[in-house]
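Ticket #4471: structure export looks truncated?
Reporter: QA, pipeline team
Priority: medium

Steps to reproduce: submit the single chain below to the structure queue and open the exported record.
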Amino acid sequence: MSIRSVVIHGHFYQPPREDPWLGEVAAEPSAAPFHDWNERIEQECYRAVVAARLYAPDGRIARIVNTLASISFNFGPTLLDWLEREAPDTYRAVLEADRSSRARHEGHGNAIAMPYHHAILPLASHRDKVTEVRWGIADFRRRFGREPVGMWLPETAVDPETLDVLAAEGMRFTILAPHQVEHAPVGGSPAWYRTPGGRSIALFVYDGGISHDVAFGPLLKDAAAWQKRLMATPKGASAPQLVAVATDGETYGHHHRFGEVALAWLLGELERRRDVRVENFTAFLARHPPEQDVKLVAPTSWSCAHGVERWRADCGCRMAPERPTHQRWRAPLREALDWLAGELHSRYEREGSELFTDPWGARDAYGTVVGSDEASIARFAAERMRRPDDLAARVRARELLELERNALRMFTSCGWFFDDIAGIETVQILRYAARAIELAGADAPRLEAGVLERLARAHSNDPEAGTGRDVYLQRVKRRVPAESGRGRANSNGGAPGADPARALLRAVTALEQDYSTGAIAAVTELAERAQRDGSPVPFDVQTVFYRIRAASPADRAAQLAPVAWRLGFTAGDGGGGAGGGDD
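Actual output as written to the record:
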C-alpha cells in the first residue's frame, strides 16, 4: 500500500504595532471591541489553533487539540515577541507544539524560521537580506531551542540572491507557490535550486488549487470535501508522494470563523488513515531528498500577480478591487524610504566604524538580543566596542544599533500591501522611519526634509489625508501615546472580581492544585450562575479545564466529570488513560 504524505503549512504573522518610542501598542479603533488588531486576532485565531475543539454529535466538546502539533508552521518573530508578553499561555502552546512534533517525527520539528521583519527581500540590499535572515535564525534558536532547517519567505517573495543568502546561512529549504518555479517535480517532491553563489537549496511547491480553496474558497466549510481533495489522484497521473497546502495561519479562526475546528477535524481523520502520513516538510525532506533541478521565476511572490510590484508600484493589486482607488503613492513611499535607508546606513558605517570593532558584524549579531532587557543590550554593545569604558560611546553605540533596527523595520511589507498611504500599517512604518531619523543625531533635520520632499509626491485616496508628507506631519510627528491600563480581553489579565468570566477562570485554574469538594463546588456554582444568566462558557475556561482534567489520574478525573458536563464537555472521563488528547 502506497502512503501519501500530507503537509499543511500555516504562516502566522501580524505587522509590528509597537510605538518605537514607548514600546507600547496604541489603541486601534478599527479593531473594536478589542484594544488593537493583535489582541483581536489572538482571540480569534492564535489561542484557537492551539486549543481547537473537536465536537461530539450532541454538540458537546469531545477533545481539545493543539493543531500546531500536527501542521508545519512559522510565526513572525515580532508577533512571537508580542505573544510572549501579552498572551503567554498561547506562546507556550506554540513552543510546546514544536517540541511534541519533534518527538513524533524523529527529531524533525514542525516550526520553521522566518526573516525577522516581514520585508520583501527581493527589494532589499544584499546586506539587509543577510541581517534579516540572521536575526530570524537567532530568534528561532532562542525560542525553540534548536537550529531551524527551513525558512518561510515573507509573501514567498523570492529572487536568486535571496535563495543564495538562505542557503549560505544554512537553510535547507523554503516553500513557494506553483507559479514561482518552472517544471516542478510531479508528485509534490522537492527540487534543487542551484543559486548564483554555487549553493543548493530545496524548494517545496504547495498545491495552488487546494490552498486557494482553503484560504478563499469553500473547503473550511466542508472539511470532508477538503479531505477528499487531499486524497484525490489526478486522472492519468500516478499518486503523489506529497500534497502540501500553504495559507496564512490567520485563515483558521480570523479570516474564517471556526476554521480551526475544520482543521482539527481534518487532521484527526487523516491521522486515522493507514494510507496517509501527516507530517512536516523537514521530516519529508529527510526521507526524500531532491532528485531534479528547477528554474526560478523571479522576482515573484504569492500575493502579487505582477511579481513584487505590489510593494513599489500601482500594479492594480489591492485589498478592495471593487473600490476605484489608486496606489500611485507606493512608488514615492518606496523611493523615500530607500533614500533614507541609504543615508542611515552610511551614517551608521561612518560612526559605527569608530565605535565598534566590526560595525556590520555587530548589526548582524544584534538579532541575538534585539528586544531584550537593557542590561543584556548594554553588555552586547560593550563586548563589541573599541572603547567599552567610554560611557558616552556606549550610549551612542546602543543608539546606532537601534537606528539600524528601525531602518530595517520601516520596510515591513504591510506598509505597501494595503490600499492607502493613510492606513494604520503605512503610518506605522513611517513612525519607524521617524525614530531612525531622530537617532541619526545632527543629520536628523536634513534627513527629515529629504523624506518629506519625496513623500509630498505620494497622494492619498482621501483628499482630507492629503499627501504622505501630510500623513507624516499629522499622524507620525504628532503621536498619540499608547493607552495604559487597557481592559484586556484575554485570559491573562484582569483584577480579582472584575467579572464573572474571570472569576470562573480563576476557580477552574485553582483545580490544578486543589481537588477538594469546596474547590469543585466553587466551579460548579459559578458555572451554574453563568448558565442562569444565559452566558456561554468562556473559551479560556474550557481550555484550562480540559488541560487539567486530561493530566489528572483517573480517580481525580472522575471527580471532575460533573463539572465537565456543566462546562460543555462530553461525559468521557478525559483523564488518566485518555492520554490528554491535545497533541
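Status: closed, not a bug. The export was complete when the record was re-opened. Leaving a note from the reviewer for reference: Confidence is low (pLDDT under 50) at residues 480-498, 573-583.
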